[in-house]
């Protein structure tokens, strides 16, 4: 029966979930499984889980919708992988994972699945969500949860910084205005530059971390996702540097054969090219 299930490409989502769970079980089978898969544990698989999540985000950012099913499948496989290892260790199974998230969605949406009114703004629903989460954390921890409890250590650092600051802001620990955040950024940056010659490498790293933390705070005040903003900046840099390489190649050169002045001029050319393209799209949209 298991061979038939593994090779069965038909059926609805329930059938295909069962198929994926069985494939994972076979990969980890001590007798006939895959040697590589059998060597893995939670710690070795966790980096792949993060990588797959980032690849999903990348596909969405590129709007490569034809790639999204495959990337979501890779991410789903990571969930099944962890659940299989947990079942082998006698901890829980895949059904517990699905049950946990289903129960959580029910409890956190009382305006949909309960008696609460649906006549709420998105902001109010977000506030209710956080209130319910805080209550869950408090119930799970003896003596009640701390304000910063539950912010995962494994999050990207910028994301975690914003989440920590949001938690602190809820109890009033926050700058009241964006201008104060900007002033703090200028202060931290100036201190770092002035002291870099007398600080140890560890101290410079610490001070730079403080600066990044305040930058994350500015992102929060501006309601900007710092990870998305930095991904956009990375994409822009990659795109424009690629144009520099193209133009240098047309002249029979490589970046190593050029100098900063030439490449900077080409950078500005690429920047102007992008602005002109955006303006053309805007004009077309307005006509």
UniProtKB/TrEMBL annotation:
EC number: 3.6.1.8
Catalytic activities: ATP + H2O = AMP + diphosphate + H(+)
Nucleus keyword on record: no
A Pfam family per the record: MazG
Keywords: Hydrolase
GO biological process, alphabetically ordered: dATP catabolic process; dGTP catabolic process; dTTP catabolic process; dUTP catabolic process; response to stress; TTP catabolic process; UTP catabolic process
UniProt protein name: Nucleoside triphosphate pyrophosphohydrolase
The family this protein is said to belong to: Belongs to the nucleoside triphosphate pyrophosphohydrolase family.
Domain NTP pyrophosphohydrolase MazG-like: 41-113, 178-240
Gene Ontology MF term list: ATP diphosphatase activity
